[in-house]
Amino acid sequence: MNVAQLHNLFNPKSIAVIGASDTPGRVGYSLFRNLITSGYKGKVFPVNPNRETVQGVDAYPNIAAIPQKVDLAMIATRANTVPGMVDECIASGALSAVVISAGFSETGEEGIKLAEQIRQSVRS
Question: CB of 72 within 8 A of CB of 8?
Answer without folding.
Answer: yes
